[in-house]
Amino acid sequence: MSSHLGKPKSVSQFFSFVLTCHLFLLIRFIHSSPPENPIKCSSKNNSNCTVTNSLGVFPDRAICKVSNAIYPQAEQELIAAVAMASMNKIKVKVATRYSHSLPKLVCPDESPNGNLLISTMNLNRTLSIDNSTMIMTVESGVLLRDVISKAAKVGLALPASPYWWGLTIGGMISTGAHGSTLWGNGSYVHDYVIGLRIVTPASPEEGYAKVRVLDNNHPDIKAAKLSLGVVGVISQVTLKLQPLFKRSLTIVREDDSDLATRATTFGKEHEFGDITWYPYQRRALYRLDDRVSINTSGNGLSDFTGFRSTLTPALAAETQEAIGDANGKCISARVTTFGLRITGFGYTNDGNLFTGYPIVGYQNRLQASGSCMDSSSDNLITSCAWDPRIRGNFYHQTAVNLPLSKVKNFIEDVQKLRDLVPEAFCGLELGNGILMRYIKGSNVYLGTEEDSIDFDITYYRSKNGSTPRLFQDILEEVEQIAVFKYAGIPHWGKNRNLGFIGAINKYKHAAEFLKVKESYDPTGVFSSKWTNQILGLDQSGVTIIKDGCALEGLCICSEDIHCAPRKGYVCRPGRIYTSARVCADVNRVDTADISITTLEEEEDLGFSDM
Question: Which PROSITE patterns match (predicted)?
């Protein structure tokens, strides 16, 4: 391996570096083909349909077939749909505009009388917003982008949100979507919800469906906010906002030697702080992000590079992963992260140019972005990077919450693995490393109860489910350390199947949630095999045992056949967590003596902070 993987050492590497830098600049100015509807029907009356997620493939690669899909435009139409399904014992699921939950939460079971999808695409109106009370009511299909922009027009702000604005308010609260803060009400969107209207099945005497109106004084709202869609379909959401405010943020890059300790306190020092960790490079990016006076000069804007339009040919190129080029992945990771840094990760000081930190701007301009979904179609010349129509970025996503008391030990374990096989982590850095966001404990039944950090890891997934990844075993061990050694809680809208093994047992109030579920939907109209499995109601469990099942996290290997023995991948114990069982490449020779440049040395190589 090269002693300085940050520095291009051949003509091909040099041109890769130059091309990457130009692409970062070019995609700032191009339009995009927005994501398509995840529901596809073969007839004009929306029958004979399929539904998928934003990547076009569920974790188990199964096709979800649906008899009919409907697009209600008002609550009364929701009531009629639920009544019909309840009366006829038809299984129902709710689909959002872009279907960003990766597991099969959106897939209804097949039943003798068919199954039904209710799309909230047309439930997209803002119903009221009161500047004096700071209360906003919207339909459940309203996008985060529209919540943010309409609130800002009357001088209000949603204090916490995910960073991607292509999520609906109903989808966000139902799966526990969040931003990053331990301050105030916290980072969960549902902790800013003060009221819901939810349509549930009902008795024949009640017309088979009814609207339940819940506020924060009603105990059932602790189940209805974060419900995984199993208690009914949310019609309306009422939010408590705050006066529009300004933030000032600076991203500082430091050595990761004290990350394990510092991560436990950093979230208490900065209201909107987060950390991006590059384990291979031994670097951590600390986002120092706080409120400032509304009079502070600045009109900064977030347009995160990863959420911008991307040229289709750049996405379709064969990756180093596919050709087994570990060294190339490490070089590309350094070039990619360097390009992000010099362009400010998509932040601009005035909406046009990044001239340096701090970035000062209004909350609505900094809290989220997603410009790749906002343009008119350009015939797929450009798209969001993950768009399945152009075989875009295809990935697994492991997102696990660990209480602050366990964060130090987890990070130290990952660093021990990194020290053994540094290059195994280069693939993570192509996805911009490990994102660490702070979550304040919440009182909803299926939410994180303690102050914690969400570790969000995005990594390569092959288009072919039987193809193992480079360093498959190392990332599997990281995942199992988080989920099992430290009993991490999975993000309900992300993760592979194994991330949900025993998940429901990690919630102290799971029984209370299940009581509300049984009360609201006693016949299981809104339940499915998948939701019953993750809620512990289907004893078959979440794993799928078959040849190669461990390659995609459908199972934990116990036999070589669960990996890819013909390709040299067999089941072995973990390196430092020996209780783990991972698919290891017996033909791989690890080289742990790679020299990592110091921050000072990077200045001479041209990779220093700008």
Answer: FAD_PCMH
